[in-house]
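Reopening this one. Same input as before:
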Amino acid sequence: MLYICSLNLSITMSTTPNSEEFYKKLKSQLEDMNVFPALYLYKFIVPTKNNDDKVIEVSNKFDNLGAAIKTKKSKNGKYTSLSIEVKMKSADAIINKYKEVTVIEGIISL
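Same output, byte for byte:
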């Protein structure tokens, strides 16, 4: 059976995005809440540019994973939110993907 898990990381990720302590705690929470493999829902906000460079950059990080990606521009068009649902093999795989994506300039993880 697959479960969908999404954690609200906006406060913690913005203050300690690369902290090993943060990722250790996240791994523990993910393992407590899931049976892997599991569907996981990533949520990000990126600044919108004329050609949506940041949206494409984030989407490319999930290429070949069978991810379902939904985007929505903010009311004023300055930002785009991305909801990415993807089957992940383990808590480590989820964390590795966060580390890979959070290097994108201006991204906010929720």
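So the earlier flakiness isn't reproducible anymore. For the record, The beta strands are 4-5, 38-47, 68-73, 79-88, 108-109.
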